[in-house]
């Protein structure tokens, strides 16, 4: 049984963007198979101009606003509130991500490492709009399934990725598959997870738990992200994961 609480750290990224980063940071580079977790809030005129990637997959999920994606595969699209985009960098991809021209664009970018046997696969891109994601109604909230059962968003690694909204005193439970570890990240409110308290801008790293029991002590919004580690060396530098 392992539950470990972490704070996010605000760091500069891209063109004039400050992100709330869980990792990579000195002393905490990754949590296999996950190699980056950034919570961003970007105003117009800033963002992530053209840059390369290699060796992993990424999901950009929007809470508010939007993000324009353009890449060297010929894809050009705009993901708005509640939608997500996934790119598989594989052997190499060049892209840009720029926010909506008005208001704030707020969301999570998650990088998932590819196993060594898939590092050289062809790059790929997918967009999923808000209304395409399955949503499970709960007593006092909802669970939006970003990756997992019935979600159209596809990865090369087995992952559970959910966006939860719970009213105060509402609860939720999840049974991860054997061998899964992951991240519970709170954007708003306060929750208990297996008796451990999490507040906004905190994350609980989870491993060797057969069941996760959530209880909202305030109206809360949070993310659940679980995956199976590849168990391989991770060579991580800048935009590349080899």
Brief summary:
0% of the residues lie in helices and 58% in strands.
Keywords:
mainly beta, seven-stranded antiparallel β-sheet, 242 residues, Jelly Rolls
Please describe what this structure looks like:
The protein has strands at residues 2-7, 9-13, 17-23, 34-42, 48-53, 56-64, 66-71, 76-80, 84-88, 93-99, 105-113, 124-128, 135-138, 141-147, 159-166, 171-174, 181-188, 190-193, 196-199, 202-207, 212-216, 220-227, 236-237, 240-241. It contains no helices and 24 strands. Strands 1-20-17-22-15-14-13 form a 7-stranded antiparallel beta sheet, with no helix packed on it. The chain is mainly beta and 242 residues long. It has a single domain, classed as Jelly Rolls (Sandwich), CATH 2.60.120. The radius of gyration is 17 Å and the shape is globular. Helices cover 0% and strands 58% of the residues.
């Amino acid at each position: 049984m392992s539950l470990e609480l972490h704070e996010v750290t605000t760091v500069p990224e891209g063109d004039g963007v400050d992100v709330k980063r869980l990792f990579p940071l000195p002393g905490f580079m990754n949590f296999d198979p996950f190699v980056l977790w950034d919570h961003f809030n970007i105003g117009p005129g800033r963002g992530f101009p053209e840059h390369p990637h290699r060796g992993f997959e990424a999901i950009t999920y929007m809470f508010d606003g939007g993000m324009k994606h353009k890449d060297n595969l010929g894809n050009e699209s705009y993901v708005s509130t509640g939608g997500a985009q996934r790119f598989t960098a594989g052997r190499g991809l060049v892209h840009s991500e720029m926010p909506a021209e008005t208001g704030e664009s707020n969301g999570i970018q998650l990088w998932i490492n590819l196993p060594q046997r898939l590092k050289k696969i062809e790059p790929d891109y997918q967009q999923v709009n808000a209304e395409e994601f399955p949503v499970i109604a709960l007593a006092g909230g909802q669970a939006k399934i970003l990756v997992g059962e019935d979600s159209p968003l596809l990865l090369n690694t087995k992952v559970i990725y959910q966006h939860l909204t719970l009213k105060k005193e509402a609860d939720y439970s999840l049974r991860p598959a054997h061998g899964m570890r992951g991240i519970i990240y709170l954007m708003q409110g306060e929750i208990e997870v297996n008796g451990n308290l999490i507040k906004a801008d905190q994350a609980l790293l989870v491993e060797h738990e057969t069941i996760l029991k959530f209880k909202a002590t305030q109206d809360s919004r949070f993310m659940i992200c679980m995956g199976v580690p590849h168990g391989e060396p991770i060579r991580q530098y800048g935009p590349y994961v080899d």
